Amino acid sequence: MIVTSAKMTLTEFLNYDDGTDSQYELENGELIPMPAESDLNQRIASFLFAFFLQLGISSYRLRIGLEVAVSGARASVRLPDLVVLSEELAVALEGASRSIVLMDMPPPDLVIEVVSLNQEKRDYRYKRTEYAARGIAEYWIVDPILQQVTVLEWVEGLYEEKVYTGDNAIASPMLGNLSLTAVQVLQGR
Question: What is the pTM (predicted TM-score) of this model?
Fold first, then answer.
């Protein structure tokens, strides 16, 4: 569902306030309301946040609710489920009045999207292209519907993908071999 028919600029999006707590993405200038996350999607993001802390990633480099400006035909801003920041990006965000990665900032190291029902095309197609253009080194698509975790690694200008299911251990280019399986991620425990 699109809230406005007029195309918004990034500045208009950043200044937009409808007086509610609703969250939006900006997709090629169109304001897209984000439905409330399912309990499973929140559990998966929280599980990964806690797992990454146990791996030794500092809490100041982990974000839930961080917006990421990406390239598109028009202004676009995505709201991933979980983001791992580079040290440089964490420093760039210090003291920011809004938790958003703008185009003049370094890209995140890792972006994770948990697929919601009827949102599959956005996560597999549109966001994949946008995150690639943004230079994000690693992108995970956690799909509870298809029961798989897709890890995309930026290699020589394209994402190379590996799909993990069941008890297959996930290998992350950024994090190395993990003692983490697809089923653990998909169950959020």
Answer: 0.91
Sign of the four-CA dihedral 182, 186, 187, 189: positive
Q: Which residues pair with 158 in a beta bridge?
A: 155
Per-residue pLDDT of the chain (189 residues; tens, 9 = 90+): 444 457 999 999 999 999 998 999 999 999 999 888 889 999 999 999 999 999 999 999 999 999 999 987 778 999 999 999 999 999 999 999 999 999 999 999 999 999 988 777 888 988 999 999 999 999 999 999 999 999 999 998 899 999 999 999 999 999 987 899 999 999 998
The range of the structural domain enclosing residue 72 comes to 37-187
Domain annotation covers residue 178: yes
- Determine the Cα–Cα distance for residues 128 and 13; give it in Å rounded to an integer: 22
Query: Measured between alpha carbons, how far is 183 from 167 in angstroms, rounded to an integer?
Result: 6
Residue 20 lies in a domain: no
The tally of domains found in the chain comes to 1
Question: Is 5 within the bounds of a domain?
Answer: no
Give the total residue count for the chain. 189
For residue 178, the tally of other CB atoms under 10 A from its CB is 15
